[in-house]
Structures are given as structure tokens and as C-alpha cells.
Amino acid sequence: MRRVLKLTFLALLVALVSLAGYAVGGRFFSLRRTSEEIRQALLVETPIGSSFEEALQRLRERGYSPAPSNNGFYRQEAGQLPTTVGVSSIRVTLGDYWWIPFLNTTVTGFWGFDSNGRLIDVWVWNTTDSP
């Protein structure tokens, strides 16, 4: 009986460690990286110069629901003047995570395209809200 309890406890411990490893090493961790690190990862998937259609297809293949627009995206960063990037764009909610109880961070990616439909910039915007 005691051996069964020890084995059950060990199995639960292994399961918890595995779950924690997923949370740290899986998609949750990637969203917790800096905006620039996420941007660089997105540029590997959709390099500067990619066509609008290529980017849409790649994002859909990755399981995202891209929202295309006939307008550029509005980049607003602390310490810089807001600016519109491109003449068309794609917006994708990359995901969200809770990092302190009641504080939720949503990570959104924006792809901006020039008048020839070529990617000119990618921006990652993190917004934190409480429910």
C-alpha cells in the first residue's frame, strides 16, 4: 500500500513538472519574450519583402486568424510619434497570458505592406488589461 502511494505521488510530480515545462518552454513562454524577440521570430516566418498573399497564407498555416486591412497599421510606441506604416496591413492576435492575477496581456502582431503589396515592417504590440 505504501509503495502504491509513493508511485502515485511520483507520477503526479512528474505530471506537474511536465506541465510546468510546457508552460515555460511552449507557446506561453514565447509570448512572454520581448516585443523585439517576437518580431524577429515573426520575420523568420514572413521576411521583409514577402507578398501580402504569402504572409496571409503563412499566418493561416500557423493556425492564426489574420485580419487583412486596406489601410496601413497605426504604430504607437512610448517616446515616439505615432505613425501609419504601409498602405495595407494584416493584424493577428498572437495570444494572451496572465502574469499576475487579474492582469491579462494580449500580444498582437501587425504586418505593414507598401503600395506594391510587399512587406515593409512588422510590429508587435503588448497590451495589459485587468478584467
Give the key terms:
about 130 residues, 2 domains, four-stranded antiparallel sheet, two-stranded antiparallel ribbon, 4 helices, 6 strands, about 40% helix
Descriptive overview:
This protein is α+β, with helices and mostly antiparallel strands and 131 residues long. It has two domains: 1-31; 35-129, no CATH class. Helix content is 38%, strand content 34%. It is built from four helices and six strands; from the N terminus they run H-H-H-H-E-E-E-E-E-E. The chain has a four-stranded antiparallel beta sheet, with helices on one face. A two-stranded antiparallel ribbon has the order 2-3. Strand 2 (73-75) and strand 3 (83-85) form a beta hairpin. The N and C termini lie far apart (47 Å). The model is unreliable at 13-29 (pLDDT under 50).
Q: TL;DR of this structure?
A:
The chain has four helices and six strands. It is an alpha+beta fold. The protein has two domains: 31 residues; 95 residues, no CATH class.
Low-confidence runs: 13-29
Q: What's the N-to-C terminus distance?
A: 47 Å
> What's the overall geometry?
elongated
Round the mean pLDDT to the nearest integer and report it: 83
Q: Number of domains in the coordinates?
A: 2
Total strands: the figure is 6
Secondary structure category:
alpha+beta
Order of helices and strands: HHHHEEEEEE
Q: What's the arrangement of strands in the largest beta sheet? A: 1-4-5-6
